């Protein structure tokens, strides 16, 4: 039987370009909740043993990931200086994902229609199974749904932070183990 759910043992979380230069394009009311959900997802991934690969586009020009994301990343996480739109086009980042020897990549970050979509398509092109999360990605205006539609049409699994979390958790025993690690208020827009 084929397992159509994403698994914590087969997944890598890729956090793409959560930088002020891109966040500032979004309506102000959407910025902090989006960052909050991405940070919560990073903490959930760490609690469940899902490796996190982080990157930021042209750090010298655009700056590093926002402080909240940098603080949520596991200690020692390398933040790749992404010089391409689709992460699969940069050998070092692709090697960073491949080093974990997992077949699935879950994408969060910015911008849905450019770097997230191009990363998703590139990863599919080199054989990964890919999910993009509607509430952990963003782009201004109609660009967000257009990016999701483009990815869906190419075979990317479109899900949510809640959806992927419960796919990674799978059972009540794991939920009971992980829940205390994620205690505290949920970020805006996330209901478990």
Automatic annotation (TrEMBL):
Coiled-coil residues: none
One Pfam match: Isochorismatase
InterPro entries membership: Hydrolase_YcaC-like (IPR053152), Isochorismatase-like_dom (IPR000868), Isochorismatase-like_sf (IPR036380)
Domain of life: Bacteria
Domain Isochorismatase-like: 12-161
Entry protein name: Isochorismatase family protein
């Amino acid at each position: 039987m084929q397992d159509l759910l994403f698994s914590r043992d087969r997944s890598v979380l890729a956090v793409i370009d959560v930088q002020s230069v891109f966040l500032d394009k979004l309506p102000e009311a959407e910025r902090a909740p989006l960052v909050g959900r991405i940070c919560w997802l990073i903490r959930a991934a760490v609690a469940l043993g899902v490796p996190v690969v982080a990157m930021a586009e042209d750090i010298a020009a655009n700056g590093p990931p926002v402080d909240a994301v940098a603080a949520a990343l596991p200690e020692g996480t390398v933040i790749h200086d992404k010089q391409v739109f689709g992460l699969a086009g940069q050998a070092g980042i692709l090697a960073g994902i491949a080093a974990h020897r997992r077949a699935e990549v879950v994408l969060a970050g910015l911008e849905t229609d450019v770097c997230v979509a191009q990363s998703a398509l590139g990863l599919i092109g080199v054989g990964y199974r890919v999910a993009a999360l509607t509430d952990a990605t963003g782009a201004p205006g109609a660009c967000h749904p257009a990016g999701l539609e483009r990815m869906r049409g190419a075979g990317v699994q479109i899900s949510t932070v809640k959806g992927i979390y419960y796919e990674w958790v799978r059972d009540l025993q794991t939920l009971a183990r992980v829940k205390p690690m994620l205690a505290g208020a949920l970020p805006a827009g996330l209901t478990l």
